Amino acid sequence: MKLNINNPAYLKIHLLAEGLRLGPSFFNYFDDKYQGSPYHYSKDNTFRVNYPHHMVLKQNTVCAINIDESSPWMLDADNQGFFISKGDEKITTVTFPKKYPWLQEKLTENVIAEDIGFMTTPHSMNVFIGKECFFFNEGVPCKFCGFQRTRKIKDDRDFVTPEMVQKLIQSFLKHDTEINQVYFVGSTSPDFDEGFNTIIKIVAAAKEVSPPHLDLIVTSFPPKDLSLIKKLKDAGATRISFAIEAANPEVFKNLCPGKEKYYGHDNFVKALVTATKHFPRQTYVSIIQGLDRKEDLIRFMWDMVSKGVVPTMNVYYHSPYSFLKNSMKRPSVDYLLSVSREHQKIFAKSNIRLFSYGADRHCMDWEAFRQMI
């Protein structure tokens, strides 16, 4: 299906489905005043330098930068600025978040703000609470994920504490920013309840120093003791998401062997339904578009909505060092268009807000929420 790429939502669908290349002049203009990332969303880390997680298209449409050298789309720059092109045609100009100087401020003698949190858009401060994956260490990681291997290569450190998070929030509150949420991402530990309790302590500490307008949102692995979900709400969390990843239980079993072995697809659904009692209209299920057949995914989306759970969906891409990077195709433009239009219907029918407001680079949630598709 041919889409009108003057609509930034349709252009984003193409870019998420097909990736893009970096043009020969890009690094002549992308420098230290822009926010780059050491975690490259490409087939490999061939550039060996920081480049951005995402770009901003028209209408405040935030789009991931996933490198694919076979893509017809190119991100480049000239004296007039950054742009997307296809062939010889310039399609649209793009911008990037500037690098905040305060991210280099010291929180302690050996830790700067950027060590604890990083920006995914101008609106969202992300904090990875744990940087180890129990499933990876057990040899049963999710097959589409390569982030743990990237962290090993980068020798990433793990020292996030409640006190550090408080200092991080106090640091950015001193400055003029557009940050309206802190997005806590939990890891998987051998004891799921212990890992969830760690999140509770960090959220409670964050709440102590946060103004009322600052949302504290959480994506985590669900606990086995489901009573802990209420404790997270009581600690000050605004919204919660559990990442089930795959809609079909058989796909889940195949692609998420650790999650299947130690928790199970049915138990994820039970945890989500329990969460709706404590986070009514604020419970979300994270799914990756492209893992399931389109029909299975759409059916699961509506089933979750009937249970009071709203989907929030990333799009599959070739993650560095993942087991699927050379064997699984990206979802097609038509696949993403069909699923996104169903998601748009869900937002219109449920009248529920986004999980991560305006800060979704790897998914079409923001565009579906705004009825752009």
Defining key terms:
single chain; 373 residues; alpha/beta; TIM Barrel; 2 domains; seven-stranded mixed beta sheet; 13 strands; 35% helix
What this model shows, in words?
By secondary structure, the protein is α/β, with parallel strands linked by helices. The chain has 2 domains: 8-94, no CATH class; 101-369, TIM Barrel (Alpha-Beta Barrel). It has helices spanning 8-18, 26-29, 113-116, 134-137, 147-154, 162-173, 192-209, 228-235, 249-255, 257-262, 265-278, 294-306, 333-350, 365-369; strands spanning 21-22, 54-57, 61-64, 73-78, 81-86, 89-94, 118-121, 124-128, 181-185, 215-220, 239-245, 283-289, 310-315. It has a 7-stranded mixed β-sheet. Helix 8 links the parallel strand 10 and strand 11. It is globular, with a radius of gyration of 20 Å.
What does the secondary structure layout of this molecule look like, with pairings?
Elements: H1 8-18, E1 21-22, H2 26-29, E2 54-57, E3 61-64, E4 73-78, E5 81-86, E6 89-94, H3 113-116, E7 118-121, E8 124-128, H4 134-137, H5 147-154, H6 162-173, E9 181-185, H7 192-209, E10 215-220, H8 228-235, E11 239-245, H9 249-255, H10 257-262, H11 265-278, E12 283-289, H12 294-306, E13 310-315, H13 333-350, H14 365-369
Parallel strand pairs: 1-4, 8-9, 9-10, 10-11, 11-12, 12-13
Antiparallel strand pairs: 2-3, 4-5, 5-6, 7-8
Helix pairs in contact: 6-7, 7-8, 12-13
Helix fraction by DSSP (H/I, runs of at least 4):
25-40%
The CATH first-level class of the largest domain comes to Alpha Beta
The CATH architecture of the largest domain would be Alpha-Beta Barrel
Poorly predicted regions: 41-45
Largest sheet: 7 strands, mixed
